[in-house]
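Input/output pair, single chain:
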Amino acid sequence: MTSHDNDLYSAIAAQVSQYADVDVADDVIETMLTALTTGLVDAVPAARFATITLIEDGTVVSIASTDPIAARIDELQAKHDIGPCLMSAWKQERVMIDDYTAETRWQLFTDDVIAQTPVRSSVSFQLYREGASMGALNIHADHPHAFDDTAITTGATFATQAASALHADTRQTQFNQALASRDVIGQAKGMLMQEYNIDANAAFEMLRKISQDSNTKLANLAERVVASAKRPT
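Output:
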C-alpha cells in the first residue's frame, strides 16, 4: 500500500470499528462496505473488481460490488451452485483461483466465467458463517497469477473490517436489499431481451456498459429501465 492507501484504509477501519456492536443506518453500512471493496481494489494493484457475497439458506446475492462484472461472478456461482466464493463462505478462510483457463474445479462455472467475463484469477476470503448464513469478500483480476502474498495479506485485513461492518443486526437487511436489487436487474434484463431481441448475456453487457458510462449503480439503472417500461404511453 502507498502512504495514501494506508491513511484511507486506517480511516475506514476506524469508522467500521466504531459500529461493530451498535445499530446504524443501512445506508451508512452500505457506504462503508462499498468504501472497503473500492479501497481493496485500490490497495491491490492487480485487482480490478471486488464484491461481498452473502448467502442465506442457499440463496446467493452480491453487495458493495465495484463493478457489475464482480456481481456477475456471483450470479454464475448461484447458477451452478459451485465456485470459489461459495466454497470460501462455506468451508474455509481463503480460496484462490490462479488461472481460470487452467482450473479443474467447478468446470461449468469456470467455463462461463471465461466466456462471459474478463476475470482470469481471484481470491475469496471468508467473512463469517453462522448456520445457513455466510459471507465472503472476493477480489478478481483480468490476468492469471495476479495475487501474491502481499495481496493476500491486504485482502485478509480488509476482510476483517468487512466482517466487523456486517454484524448480525445488519446482515439480513443487507441481504434482503441485495436480493430485491437482483430481482429488479433480472426484470430489466428481460425487458431488454424482449425489446432488442438479444440473449441474457447481451442484455447484461448492455446494462453493464451503460452503468459504467453513466457512473450509475447497476441496481439503480435497472430500476429506471423497469420504471420507464411501466410508464403509460
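The first helix runs from residue 3 to 18. The chain is about 60% helix and 15% strand.
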